[in-house]
Give the backbone structure.
Amino acid sequence: MKEDGLVRVGIVGAGAIAQVSHFPAYHRLPGVKLTAVCDVDMGKAHRVASRYNVPHVTESFEELAGLEDVDAVDICLPNHLHAPATLAALAAGKDVLCERPFSRSSEEAAAMVNAAKERKLVLMSGFNNRYREDALLLKRFVAEGEIGRIFYAKAGWLMQASTWSGAGWRKKKKYAGGGVLMDLGIQMLDMALWVLGMPKVLTVSATANPRPTRDDMESTASAFLRLASDNVITLEVSWGLLMERELKFLKKELEKPARPFIIILGGGSIIKKRMLFEHAAVGRLFASEDAREGVTAFTEKRKPNYKGK
């Protein structure tokens, strides 16, 4: 960070996730300046740089990490390049935001984390779902004990069979690190654990089914996790759902009241005795007090008294 107080960010990888999410987000943030972009496709890198007025363009992530005009590096590369790019940036003294999945293996992850600790640098994985309005709301309710003690959580992301595609590297285990569990599963599992306060996982039982013609990649997986906090998580993920629409969910079973409290992450409605929040509506329709009143009324089986619209 220079005297002007701006954080100068270099983005490694100018693919879809960088162009759709990362570049626009940094461009809107006050106190941030995009100063470098790296991609092996220099034509694409120059086009993106021109769009966002980025002065430095290179095809080497080592070169980008070494620039004095870069304080932090955002890594938006294929999974197999997360570890080497992160280690290069940390070695150059830069803080790092790395897209998910963090790495392909625990060994790669340990090397990345150890390097950041040794240099006292920030290393963060891109679990952006933690900052969703619905997830923040649910985490607060759980932490404050407003919806009772959680003894069971169910998380999942079931994607339509016709929806999944992805770049060529996503279809190769040596590059992607795994199939649907690495692609969708880690996001839902992270959010379930995060909402519960990141308790230690004691045991895991899991199963995975391969996807025909895919390179040793699971297309469907399920897992059962027993936690040190005396509760459990089940996880379901698939690239092969045969339904009209995909489904993402995070469900919590309570001891009191003994009814489910569900966050439907892709969309929501009231179904029988289940309360579902549509994520886009949580912040828009409910002020903090109204959200609290809604949950309280639901648990007390009465009509809520909302103060807002």
Remarks:
- The chain has two domains: 7-126, 129-299.
- The radius of gyration is 21 Å.
- Residues 43 and 169 are 20 Å apart (CA to CA).
- The longest strand covers residues 150-160.
